[in-house]
Amino acid sequence: MYTSFATLGLLLAFGGDAAPAWQTNYSAALEAGQRQNRPVAVFVGAGPAGRASLVAETQRLLATRYVCVYLDRGLAANQRLVRDLGITATGLVISDRTGSVQAFHHDGTLAESELSQQLRRFANPNLVVETTISNRSTRTSFYNGGGAAGGATGPTFRTVNC
Q1: pLDDT of the chain along its 162 residues, tens only?
Q2: Are strands 102-107 and 67-72 parallel, antiparallel or unpaired?
Q3: I want to staple 20 with a disulfide (CB 3.0 to 4.6 A). Which of 62, 76, 95, 134 is the partner?
Q4: In what order do the strands lie in the sheet with 22-23?
């Protein structure tokens, strides 16, 4: 009997085969991320198996530190959001813990080692996100805000309201 409790304790302590609870509602995920003080990781892929190739370590990290969203880009209901997030086929967008700043953006396939590195980085509760890390040119994305104020000249920033 004690062996059973010890085994259960070890599984709970180390996460066992934790798998993320995938959500499909982006707005609900942002709200959950704010309530749980967790960043939101939005994966975009094709078909229901688009997220199936994640290794166990990555799945444990996602399950314990993130609110996870999977958007099937083939579904008509997701196409506008996928476009607004700046993803052309597959990709990943990570928000900060507030849900108001895009911390990481990757359009395309991401190597498992890079995915793991970025997920560990943005899972850090002490990290303050000020700009977006992207595989495109540098971008600053604020989910809630406007563009340049009062006809100001100079660079403007793309605001994504999702």
Answers
A1: 443 333 333 333 444 558 899 999 999 999 999 999 999 999 999 887 766 678 999 999 999 999 999 999 999 999 999 999 999 989 999 999 998 899 999 999 989 999 999 999 999 999 999 889 988 644 455 555 444 444 444 433 444 434
A2: unpaired
A3: 62
A4: 22-23, 67-72, 40-45, 91-95, 102-107, 133-134
Which domains are delineated in the chain?
16-139 (3.40.30.10)
List % helix, strand, coil for the chain (3-state, nearest 5).
35, 20, 45
Which candidate, 128, 131, 126, 155, places its Cα nearest to that of 142? 131
CA dist 158 and 162 (Å) reads: 13
Token pair listed for 66: 């993130």
